[in-house]
Specification:
490 residues, alpha+beta, Butyryl-Coa Dehydrogenase, subunit A, domain 1, Butyryl-CoA Dehydrogenase, subunit A, domain 2, Butyryl-CoA Dehydrogenase, subunit A, domain 3, 3 domains, 4-stranded antiparallel sheet, 48% helix, 12% strand, globular, binds flavin-adenine dinucleotide
């Protein structure tokens, strides 16, 4: 029986029961502290943080939001800092939390948009960038960039996507990275580079092609550390997400023209760019998914407040009395719970795999395309419950939807993860065929023993479908034919 931890109010008794024994006393205590900090400090400051961002199109890109900086100081003092960086993976710089323990915290943080992760120094793209530096950086690179990032003194950007190539296949990247004496020269045109608009961003981690002729398309790329004030960098414009500019961080279009940095700014080694981007993403995807679940939960809570508003009645009933509304609420709850179980199982896999997310690639891939769509559906229902108010600036739901929608594209579009999961799944087919052949042999032996000629009759699965169809069941064998290729013994 799980204990009554305050996190249950934000998640569920069932999910807490599944993971409570995996939580160390330190993690439980940190989680309790985080909930208190979220309720007493972060939530009350949310509207103020929006109000402190000027409307002025120039000033908003030069602003460091005061209340966020104040909260950062408080969070650090409380030890609510760099919670994403697990000591198990990063003994020197990490905190004593596992990916699973942080995943639950990420869900809570996801309820309060971009602000909450930033306040505890857990926001993307800094998180992934800190992991790159902690994992692959030289002691000098770590001193110069990692330590200020860990302290929350600077911010950073990761520049991979390019305007003129299909960047979901990172082998297409064209930005040129070449050596000239003791320097590296970079030329390229990137866009959608998150964080590059922030006045605190002092570092771009740039991926480009250093060896385009290499036989292996996975060894042509390198990654270089580029100070944001290096001559030759032009921030062309911030890209807007459905009209939102996400200032002051932004997602910028950038031109790198003859940008020169010292040779010592190369990360890990020539031709090792792919290795770096692969190492960067695993746990981060779990955290994105958990934040998306937090956003969906927040949307559902918002919807509950709205549909129980006693001042709103349509067609003689309060909103919550309409069956359609009750159904939307129930479906949302069910989908959130299912998604959380999925992501927690991925986080558990990472924990079990101990050091790299490789052992959990399947689970992470599934979560990456299932969870954002689930969250979008839940937020969409909440928007609907507000009528026109749901799509306007008075509620956070429209912005929440816009942010979640980008998760289906950023960090690998759904289609790419679906393809990888599908291909992985197909690898099971030879084993299934072999098993089916063995079963057929045992069936043959049974038929022979019984003295009955084995015909081409329907399998048990097909009989089940037909019986249910005849009973006017919704299971229709025509709409849902069994996949004969997947079940070759039919
Ligand atoms: C808000 C936001 C923030 C971002 N932040 C960053 C950042 O900080 N740094 C950075 O480098 N990039 C960033 N990106 C860019 C993002 O990573 C890319 O947009 C993404 O990788 C897709 O690349 P692309 O836009 O070039 O699309 P393309 O590669 O042109 O793909 C277009 C579409 O093709 C389809 N497709 C691709 N492959 C397959 C397939 N195998 N099967 C079927 N269909 C397929 C998909 O539907 C895909 O959406 C950000 C994007 C957004 C929206």
């Amino acid at each position: 029986m799980a204990s009554q931890h305050p996190i249950v109010e934000y998640t569920s008794q069932a999910s807490w029961a599944m993971i409570e024994d995996k939580f160390s006393p330190y993690a439980k205590e940190t989680l309790t502290k985080l909930i208190k900090f979220y309720e007493e400090e972060i939530l009350p400051a949310r509207r103020l943080s929006h109000a402190q961002l000027p409307e002025d199109p120039v000033k908003r890109w030069k602003t460091v939001i005061p209340v966020i900086e104040e909260l950062k100081v408080k969070a650090k003092k409380l030890g609510l800092w760099n919670l994403f960086l697990s000591k198990a993976h990063y003994p020197e710089h990490g905190v004593p939390l596992t990916n699973l323990e942080y995943a639950v915290m990420a869900e809570l943080l996801g309820r309060a948009g971009h602000m909450a992760p930033e306040v505890v120094n857990c926001s993307a793209p800094d998180t992934g960038n800190m992991e790159v530096l902690a994992k692959y950086g030289t002691p000098e690179q770590q001193k110069k960039w990692l330590i200020p990032l860990l302290n929350g003194e600077i911010r950073s950007a990761f520049a991979m996507t390019e305007r003129h190539v299909a960047s979901s296949d990172a082998t297409n990247i064209r930005t040129s990275i070449r050596r000239e004496g003791d320097e590296i020269v970079i030329n390229g045109h990137k866009w959608w580079i998150s964080g590059a608009g922030d006045p605190r961003t002092k570092l771009h981690i740039v991926m480009g092609k250093s060896d385009p002729g290499n036989k292996s398309s996975y060894h042509q790329q390198s990654v270089v550390l580029v100070p944001s004030d290096t001559p030759g960098i032009t921030i062309v414009r911030p890209m807007k997400v459905f009209g939102y500019d996400d200032a002051p961080e932004g997602h910028c279009e950038i031109i790198y023209e003859n940008v020169r940095v010292p040779l010592s700014n190369l990360v890990l080694g020539w031709g090792r760019g792919f290795e770096i981007i692969q190492g960067r993403l695993g746990p981060g995807r779990i955290h994105h998914c958990m934040r998306a679940i937090g956003a969906a939960s927040e949307a559902l809570d918002t919807m509950l407040r709205r549909v129980t508003d006693p001042s709103r009645k349509t067609f003689g009933k309060y909103l919550h009395e309409h069956g359609a509304v009750i159904a939307e609420i129930a479906k949302s709850r069910a989908e959130i719970e299912a998604a959380r179980m999925l992501v927690l199982s991925a986080a558990l896999q990472v924990k079990n795999a101990d050091i790299t997310p490789k052992g959990a690639l399947k689970e992470i891939g599934i979560a990456k395309f299932v969870v954002p769509s689930m969250a979008l559906t839940v937020v969409d229902r909440a928007i609907q419950s507000f009528g026109a108010e749901g799509v306007c600036q008075d509620q956070g739901l429209a912005k929440m939807w816009a942010g979640l929608r980008t998760l289906r594209i950023a960090d690998g579009p759904d289609a790419v993860h679906i393809q990888q999961v599908g291909q992985r799944e197909l690898k099971r087919a030879p084993g299934l065929v072999k098993k089916a052949a063995e079963l057929a042999k045992r069936e043959d032996a049974l038929f022979q023993k019984a003295g009955i000629k084995k015909g081409k009759g329907p399998s048990l699965v097909a009989i089940f479908y037909v019986l249910n169809f005849e009973k006017n069941s919704v299971i229709n064998p025509i709409a849902n034919p069994p996949l004969s290729s997947a079940l070759p013994f039919l």
